[in-house]
């Protein structure tokens, strides 16, 4: 949360509860979420309505501050997740389009490329656990 507050100060944005709620949603998931998914989660924990535009506005602020990265799936739909220095590898399921953080497998691969400082993240096309499971049955 400290990084979030620094970001807010830097941008002279007024602090709002909505922003913390949105940031927390991203902190607490391993998935990269679309704006629609973020709105759905917020609805449960935060009964006061947050408009889609507000969610977009806050997400753009996070991205501008390098706190959050935005990835697109094959439908060119934007997905958001917390930027993590130690984990810049993501998997994109070609079947259902879900984008997830890759936990271990790809880390060694990324280490090989680490000297490429301009690299921001990698996405691997790999079926997610759900789709993988379905194909086995
Ligand atoms: Zn899938």
CATH topology of the largest domain, what is it called?
Answer: Arc Repressor Mutant, subunit A
Tell me what the CATH architecture of the largest domain is.
Orthogonal Bundle
For the terminal residues, how far apart are their CA atoms?
A: 43 Å
Structural class of the helix and strand makeup? alpha+beta
CATH superfamily of the largest domain: Winged helix-like DNA-binding domain superfamily/Winged helix DNA-binding domain
What percent of the residues sit in helical stretches (DSSP H or I)?
Answer: 40-55%
Please report the first level of CATH classification, the CATH class of the largest domain: Mainly Alpha
Tell me the total number of β-strands. 6
Ligand inventory reads: zinc ion
Radius of gyration from CA coordinates: 16 Å
Residue-averaged pLDDT: 82
How can the largest sheet be summarized? Answer: 6 strands, mixed
Structurally, the number of domains stands at 2
Can you tell me the overall shape?
A: globular
Low-confidence stretches: none
Q: What is the chain-wise order of helices and strands? A: HHEHHEEEEHEH
Strand content: 15-25%
Which strands sit side by side, in order, in the main sheet?
2-3-1-5-4-6
């Amino acid at each position: 949360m400290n990084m979030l507050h620094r970001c807010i100060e830097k941008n002279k944005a007024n602090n709002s509860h909505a922003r913390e709620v949105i940031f927390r949603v991203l902190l607490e998931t391993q998935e990269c979420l679309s704006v629609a998914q973020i709105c759905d989660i917020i609805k449960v924990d935060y009964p006061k309505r947050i408009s889609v535009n507000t969610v977009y506005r806050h997400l753009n602020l996070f991205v501008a501050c390098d706190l959050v990265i935005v990835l697109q799936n094959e439908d060119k739909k934007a997905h958001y997740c917390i930027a993590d220095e130690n984990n810049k590898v993501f998997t994109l399921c070609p079947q259902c389009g879900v984008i997830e953080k890759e936990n271990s497998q790809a880390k060694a691969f990324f280490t090989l490329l680490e000297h490429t400082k301009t690299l921001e993240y990698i996405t691997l096309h790999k079926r997610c656990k759900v789709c993988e499971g379905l194909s086995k049955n």
